[in-house]
Amino acid sequence: MRIFARLVIAAVAVPVLAVAASAPVALKTTEFGKGPTIVMVHALGAGRMGWMPVARKLLPNYRVVMVDLPGHGDTPMPESFSFEGAAEALDQVLARQNAESTIVVGYGTGGMLAVLAVHAHPEHARGAVAIDAWLKFPMEIADQEKKQFLAYMDEHFDDFLKRMFTGQGRDSAQGVTIHALASLVPRENMKVYFARLLDADASGAVKNFPRPLLYIGSEKGWPAGKDWAAIAHEHGWEQASGVQTMRIGASGAMIATDQPDSLSMAISNFAKQAFAAKK
Question: Which of 20, 112, 149, 232 has an alpha carbon 20 to 30 Å from 33's alpha carbon atom?
């Protein structure tokens, strides 16, 4: 099925801005530690506790706030969901922190929301880190193909979810784990996310971004042999100016588990730089 094959390319990573924003829900958080604050947002189909391997590394020097996305874990799904509303909900978490010593880190969908939240309210954070985050869907899809995709998803959801998530791991065993975690999210919530995915384009949010911005690619999301120009073109980052980039090898969608030392060091180094920046 041609549309299915094309959608698998970016389905887990790409969020979308809806036309009408819903009222933001209160995002469930787990918070501990003292010092400058790092707010961490997971990807579609994951949960806030997945950040624990990195959070443990950061705790000696930082306060860590791990957040559940709408419709995931202990955060309810709003009646009218939009990514614009989800970004506003994340901003409510950021607004409770000390703005002068807070950065936000997100993987996949969480990375896009981190960018959107700081773009809309730069006064609430000193910088953002986006990991394997797509800013727009990589190709145009005709309305008929969208209908085919949604119909397939409704009729074969279990198989659809398996195909979407098992390929996200560093290896096949990890892919099974990622799919199992995604299966814990209510299927109706996942369907809403995927339906919104089809019109995704938030690439303008990184144009003249008001705060320091770091893009981190896992080995799965940023394969060896591809330069940043290729990744930016594929993932919708072409309008980004001044973005810092780095790649962490031997990692996939569970980068926090695969490379907690490298990832925590990258986040900590960026945080120090962002806090020192004068903007």
Answer: 112
